[in-house]
């Protein structure tokens, strides 16, 4: 009989512990309410959840909430979930943000799960007002987050990048939706830097800048089943602008669709790089393109707004790059551009099963290559640098080495 009472006591204690592991920002303990500011309620709920030695969950229920900002820091003592079911709205005026470069941030958290079907609305309306001063407020920033899952959330109208990933390991993004107007500047979808083991899967991104951009130190990155457009495409870089950049290595982009983007699959490095860098083992495979500008593009003279000295070559070595089974339509006649550095020509670049067409009136379908000896397999003649007016291709030069 005593044993039965002990069992009941332990069961009730376990139930109480499970119940106490849920931290609802709208509970009496935290006082958050829909259509009001929950900045302090969320901070308090996170503080208590992060301190628990049991796995915990912070909940933002359905509804619309104002949030001036949240920097949610670890380390936490146990795995932690953040279930965002509601719609969070940033201040329209950036001066009311609690931190000028970050709206919602997670820092030094291990075993984080962020999910719930809710949205993070940055309320960026600068694209509507030419006098509006743009800010650097990122909708969602992950710094030094490990072993995390980000799924089933939406990022809307960020004032800068939508999601920024830095110093992270083993983080998966799945079923994420990112939306911003095509003319909203610097609204990259997901930007990754100095991170290892990042997966982006079944995600839809349409912005005014790169759908996905990989900065220096991006290693073992897998991008699959991503729908991109509008925007500037999927980009490695830009690289080579700063001293002490970390190599980019091990990138796979597969089974993606790009529609009406300014660029397609791009690797971009600055000329006049201050230090030697590398980008290697980068593979693009099974990509569908619809009316994409510059579908295949290695650009080692990337220089927006004339911010660099064009005469100095890039010192970023690009190697072991493949484009396989890339099909669709180009918005420009130059469908393949492999413009490498004259100081460090690209090494081991291959194109296989490339079928891109152009139906515009700006000239015939063509390609350009410089300082590279690409290997072409089942690539139509106009896409193999054979018709470029700068071509040095001849029977003596079967490797298609071009210069300009």
Structural class: mainly beta
Cα-to-Cα separation, first versus last residue: 92 Å
Q: For the report, how would you describe the main beta sheet?
A: 18 strands, parallel
Say how many strands there are. Answer: 29
Helix residue percentage: under 10%
Mean pLDDT: 90
User: What fraction of residues sit in β-strands?
Assistant: 35-45%
Q: Write down the Rg.
A: 24 Å
Q: Uncertain spans, ≥5 residues at pLDDT below 50?
A: 5-19, 388-404
Primary descriptors:
single chain; 404 residues; mainly beta; 11-stranded parallel sheet; 29 strands; 8% helix; cell wall biogenesis/degradation; cell wall
Overview of this protein structure:
With 404 residues, this protein is mainly β. It is 8% helix and 44% strand. It contains two helices and 29 strands. It has helices spanning 2-20, 39-51, and strands at residues 22-24, 56-60, 64-66, 70-73, 80-84, 87-89, 102-107, 112-115, 119-121, 138-143, 146-151, 154-156, 163-166, 169-174, 177-179, 190-193, 196-206, 212-214, 219-228, 234-239, 248-259, 265-269, 277-292, 296-299, 316-330, 334-339, 347-357, 366-370, 375-379. Strand 1, helix 2 (39-51) and strand 2 form a beta-alpha-beta unit. The model is unreliable at 5-19 and 388-404 (pLDDT under 50). The active site is at residue 232. This is Exopolygalacturonase-like. Residues 1-20 form the signal peptide. It is found in: Secreted, Cell wall.
